[in-house]
Prior knowledge:
Layout: E1 12-16, H1 20-31, E2 35-39, E3 52-54, E4 68-71, H2 76-89, E5 92-95, E6 108-112, E7 115-119, H3 126-139, H4 144-160, H5 171-183
Parallel strand pairs: 1-2, 1-4, 2-3, 4-5
Antiparallel strand pairs: 6-7
Helix pairs in contact: 4-5
Amino acid sequence: MFPLVLDLTGRRVVVVGAGRIGVGKAHQLTQSGAVVTVISPEVAGDLPPGADLVARDYRDGDLTDTLLVVCATGRGDVDDAVVAEARERNVLVNVVDDPVRSSFFFTAVHRDGDVTVSVSTEGASPALARRVRDDAAHSLPSGLGEVARRLRAERRALHDEGTSTEGLDWSGCIDAALAELSVRPSA
């Protein structure tokens, strides 16, 4: 597996199945900027604002112009059909609770601004991934998003001057920004 951060802004994503897990995945994907289509005859819970509901069973052809699909039906026959179409169309697929047929996995995520800590067990144990994420999050200082914002501005200024940022030792800048965070009065 290859870990990466994927920009889903404006990209079509399909969630097949709208039980508790499917609705949850639809929320996660919508929050990431994806254009989410949920295909399910029934919905258990509130879909996120902006998600389109196709209130019927999955049909071949539903993955046209789709970047990725999440299959959360719990039905083997539907999973089989979704996986077959996804492979045919080169669409990334996640079959909930079936890591063998999935080409990607959701990770346990901690965010602080632009800083994202993501933990994966490659589908082996989402509970373990959440535990490791929580342990990591508790060990990190708060305000890392602000540090990232400042470093982005410093990099941009160097680029605007025509200076390459490759090979620069950023340790001092990071240490100074972290030290400043630790001396700020708490809100």
